[in-house]
Amino acid sequence: MLTRHATYAATVAATLWDVPQHYNIGVDVCDKWADGTGRLAIIHEKSPNHIQYYTFDQLKAYSNRFAHVLQQAGVVRGDRVGILLAQGIETAIAHIACYKLGLIAIPLFSLFGSDALAYRLSNSGARALVTNAEGVAKLASIETPLPQLQTVVDIDATQDTPAAPITLAFWPALQQQPDTFEPVPTLADDPAVIIYTSGTTGKPKGALHAHRVLLGHLPGVEMSHNFFPDHAKVMWTPADWAWIGGLFDVLMPSLHHGIPVLACRFAKFTAEAAFDIMSRHQVTHTFLPPTALKMLRRLENPRDRWPLALHSIASGGESLGLELIDWGRRNLDITINEFYGQTECNMLVSSCADLFEPKIGSMGKAVPGHDIQIVNDQGDILPDGAEGNIGVRRPDPVMFLSYWNNPEATQEKFAGDFLVTGDVGVRDEEGFFRFVGRNDDVITSAGYRIGPGPIEDCILGHPQVSMVAVVGLPDDERTEAVTAFVVLNEGVEPSDALKKDIQEHVKTRVAAHEYPRRVYFVDALPMTTTGKIIRKELRNYTETAG
Ligand code: ATP
Ligand code: MG
């Protein structure tokens, strides 16, 4: 855990890992705080008129009961259990019960279609699935045989259905079980969870993590929130708990520190809805991915309309950029802390406004506890200022164990002593890491290597632009031509004059050789379910569509 020090160097020097041999996420985030004092754990808002408050004592009792339910259904240690649920109390109960039983939880995004769901259930060989009525219906539409799936637990059901796979009614089943359960004494290195990557570059890969993954996340969470849990009263994120960002950057670390988490599933995420919920629950800490921030920034002066208690905003998953940082400072008096990581190994680099001014164009410095270096493809360390792979020295408590059922991909992920992220970056002499781009997204144009991030950030600063993605398209003369796909603000008409204006905007602000030679106006950008721009698809799109 990070302790507050005045400087980054002192914080690094004071940080030591403390990973016990035996460690269980479920016990740590729940039983530890269940001391009969009624400490608040989860605020579940089903609608503004339907809010339920759950204590750690309740969470312990419910997760113990659910552990018995799974055990009686024949699920045994090491089995995989899918959790296809949005944010909510049952999601937390299911996760904690799985960890206490030594099972492997598989968080699944509630908006997945049947193909996405079938792929993950089949790839992981899930034995059980915890879901709701909607999920049960989705499951019924899957044609792929799922012979391993024996039990489904439906949080909406009022009675069991015996047809295969057997469907159990969650809440009635809980009622029949005792409050007490002896958690399995897992090792910190025992598998706990498989999280599928976003699938930005190809088919999603199942990253298998050990129980220690939560301890590995703590310094990053603490740094990106200016020494969390200082000043923390309520934590919230619109990111689904099915992703590493929602689950291990928000839900689990917050419960680890005994800070209540607000759970809510939005019918539709809007800036108004986000400010409304943050205001009503006086949220102090939030993780807002850049896509969410881009929606919020359509509003100026939100504090005129909503009384906010916000203390800290962390953001990551994509480049943040000056535009969003400026908006946060202007409108909320908060310097948004950018962080960097990936499903396989997360919260590695971060900014921390309490320790240093963010450097524009950089993601921050190495999170204490992690040794982050720029390395070549063989895993040799490159000097400051050189461009190369962002690498993480192993072992590291936050590092994944392997890709599920994919030893080749696991092996390819490492070079020498380092996990190679697949992202290109540069570290400067002060220790700031600049994100150049994903290996595949770096544009090679007329001998220059250009990352899309700074150009996108600049175009986003154009008053008529709402969203933008920059890619390199094949070009006879320059290998690749910098190309911008632009979504304009509502009501703005595309025109050649506007195209020129956007090009000039980049030429004068970024660099003449980086301006987009081609600009296409589009209605929307292809995005992953996590809200990341799929640049790969834009490259394919134009190759065929001209
Ligand atoms: P897949 O691996 O399936 O293609 P993905 O890499 O998008 O999908 P995630 O693990 O969710 O899946 O995302 C991690 C990636 O997100 C990082 O490797 C990096 O490319 C990008 N990323 C994360 N944080 C930042 C950041 N602060 N700035 C720029 N990019 C970031
Ligand atoms: Mg990836």
Automatic annotation (TrEMBL):
InterPro entries: AMP-bd_C, AMP-bd_C_sf, AMP-binding_CS, AMP-dep_synth/lig_dom, ANL_N_sf, MACS_put, Mitochondrial_ACSM. Coiled coil: none annotated. Residues 39-404 form the AMP-dependent synthetase/ligase domain. Residues 455-532 form the AMP-binding enzyme C-terminal domain. The keyword Transferase does not apply. CDD domains: MACS_like_3 (cd05971). One of its GO terms (biological process) is fatty acid biosynthetic process. GO terms for molecular function: ATP binding; CoA-ligase activity; fatty acid ligase activity; fatty-acyl-CoA synthase activity. Keywords: ATP-binding, Ligase, Nucleotide-binding. PROSITE patterns: AMP_BINDING. PANTHER family: ACYL-COA SYNTHETASE MEDIUM CHAIN FAMILY MEMBER 3, ACYL-COENZYME A SYNTHETASE. Belongs to the ATP-dependent AMP-binding enzyme family. This is AMP-dependent ligase.
